[in-house]
Amino acid sequence: MLQFKVFSAFLLLLCSFSAFSQNGNFYGKVKYDSNEPAVSTFIILNGNNIKQETNSNINGSFTFKDIPYGNYTIAFYSLNEQPKTVDVKLDSKNKEVNVTLEVAALDEVFVKSKTVQQKIEEKGFAVNVIETKEIAIQSIQVNELLDQSAGVRVRQSGGLGSHAHYNLNGMTGNSVKIFIDGVPIRNFGPSFSLNSIPPSLIKRIEVYKGVVPPHLSDDAMGGAINIVLNGITKNELKASISAGSFGTYRADVNGGYRNNKNGFTARGSAFVNYADNDYEVWGDQVAVALSAGTPDVYIRAKRFHDRYRSQGGKAEFGYTNVGWADKFLAGVLLSNMDQQIQTGATMEIVYGNRFTEQNTNMYSLDYAKKGLVKNLDVSAFASYSRLNRKTIDTIATQYSWLGYPTSYYNDPDVWATGAEAGDPTLQKDIDETINARTNVAYNINDNNVIQLNHLLNTFTRDSDDPMLPAVENALKETREYLKSILTLSFENKAFDEKLRTSVFGKSYYMDRTSKLRTRSSNTSSSTIIIEENNINSNDFGYGGAISYTFSPKFTVFGSAEKAIRLPEANEVFGNVAANVNASINLKPEHSNNYNLGFTYDNIKFKKHTFGVTSNIFIRDTEDLIMQFPTGSNEEFFENSNVGKIYTEGFDFTLNYNYNEKLFFSGNTSFFNARDYNVTYDVDGNPITPSYERLANTPYFTMNYNLKFKTPNLIQKGSMVSTYTNLLYVHEFFRGSSVLGGSGKTVIPTQVSLDAGFAYTFPKNKVTLSFDVKNILNNQIFDNYALQKPGRGFYGKLSFTIL
């Protein structure tokens, strides 16, 4: 009997111990009462002699794993939001805890958004962070938004849909890489460009000038623009429509869904863009002969063959914030575009029948998991894209800026070549691109992280032109390109995270092969042959960034890098649709880049708040790749290495707001890029460099933005925002700036003034905005005096459906 009692007591104790030794997990999300995720909230778990700490991630999610069953308190702390403590009981394997933090006023939201910017800046890179939440309601394109940022000059060749490239503190063209959520934008196809992405889809824009963080694994020698899209934090559906001058119409819709129980996530977006681009142009390149043999007469004319249409959709399906993945998404992107071509490389040549059609399909997989195994974070992205492009130019009729064919004795003039831009063509290009990016980070401890990043990019093009003679077309051309970039980096935080350092090394490998048709001429005949070309390169670069935060308001940063930029496939192989010739012998660019600057932000005096950011930089570049017009009529572009260019400069930004109602932002950028190439005379003697300024490059710009917000003006709970923006671009030489000679083309000083207002109805569901751009109707130029639109009026309606 005694033995039975002892056995029963032992069994009861064992069962009790087993019950109390069960472990489970807390998980959930923390958000603000504005429904925004509470990023980087400090969270403390207390109870049962256990204390654990963590931070919420970018989606506001958090977890506490392997916790014994029992009663606990969880405290949530976020900067300038009311802290919150909840009592919870863990009695199952997984317990969900979702918490909403209260935000008392608008100024607290402002501080939070600045904290995101501050965290990026504290890593030591010269960076501008552009928040888009309020700007998205305006009738504004992403390129216009970037053009208002310090050190950035967007070079666009016309209206909506025209080619654009970016100048960051003296570096330009493909030296500046564009990313969408860290993925190179070149994989998305030309119809999915920055101008095509509605600002409402964008959470923020990060502009890195010079040295670029290692996680953006690409050869971004001159800097990078990373578009961070909105994540899915709730079930939502938003849309906007806009219309304006020059036959401009735009519409977009975006939304997402997430099942909070199993993590299933779906999100998508779609857009439509249309523009006639029939704005007025004038100047020394817009001239016509009113009759045969008479001098040219300069006129004001409308662009008449510049229609642009694009449509696109992007969808992703998978799981987010589940135990085995922070995200696992399969995606598909479909887009197409057709565009009339109005001019060649300059406005000297005008077309009336040349145009291009393109469509892109892209398929992708995106995976990320923090803590895949202890202290190890992994992310990977892979995509395959196929672009089909057709260039149509089969009519030889010559057009003038009057909008109809030129004529002689009532018969239309024709080009002797048989088409407007050379030989007749119906060329079809199929570009196939594979992109794979992998990031692995090992957190040695809270203050030290080592990362390995790899980017692999392959490109092939298959071309066919039925307009070519059969014998010539039978000589098949091939174009193949491979780029591999491997980065190893180490990050350290010291002195209570006041000192942050990052050092990295990069390996750059490129291999490109082409077989292109060319004409072989001798004294008796001209024949078509295939010229083979194979070039590979293997380079190594390195760099680092450092910052020190003296106080929450004052940070000093610096960075340096030995950088390499590999020629892009379109630069090497050309693009018939864009009038770009092949440049198969292009060499990689090399540059030593240096940045030094400071940020003094959130300086408060009563109701006044100030912020200052400044950066000085040096770029010492060899074999800089630039695009120049070529041919007697400057009808085509060609990329060339221009040798040694040395650049010094600075940019400066001042921000001010009064009582969170009146906002001012002003920035100035200046750089001095000079030619340091040594040339030789006929006897082989070196000639002192000319030190001439870099051609066709604006070097001094200023931008001033003023905004005023008035709540409850018409309706209680409404908001009226009025805004204006002034852009100044100092005159610069189109070509050589060397003293002496005559007839040098100067692109004159440009001033553009924009203004508008937006009315947001109560509950923030509907916003109506109206903008006037280029109010003064001034001539605005970018690339080789290709004029941009004059005064235009635009309206936009944005609304939240869910």
TrEMBL record:
TonB-dependent receptor plug domain mapped to chain residues: 122-224
Protein name per the record: TonB-dependent receptor
InterPro entries for the chain: Beta-barrel_TonB, Beta-barrel_TonB_sf, CarboxyPept-like_regulatory, Plug_dom, Plug_dom_sf, TonB-dep_rcpt-like
Membrane topology type: Multi-pass membrane protein
Organism lineage string: Bacteria, Pseudomonadati, Bacteroidota, Flavobacteriia, Flavobacteriales
Subcellular location: Cell outer membrane
Keyword line: Cell outer membrane, Membrane, Receptor, Signal, TonB box, Transmembrane, Transmembrane beta strand, Transport
Signal sequence region: 1-21
Domain TonB-dependent receptor-like beta-barrel span(s) in chain numbering: 309-775
PANTHER family (alphabetical): HEMOGLOBIN AND HEMOGLOBIN-HAPTOGLOBIN-BINDING PROTEIN 1-RELATED (PTHR30069:SF29), TONB-DEPENDENT OUTER MEMBRANE RECEPTOR (PTHR30069)
Gene3D superfamilies: Carboxypeptidase-like, regulatory domain, TonB-dependent receptor, beta-barrel domain, TonB-dependent receptor, plug domain
Principal localisation: membrane
Similarity remark: Belongs to the TonB-dependent receptor family.
Pfam families registered for this protein in UniProt: Plug (PF07715), TonB_dep_Rec_b-barrel (PF00593)
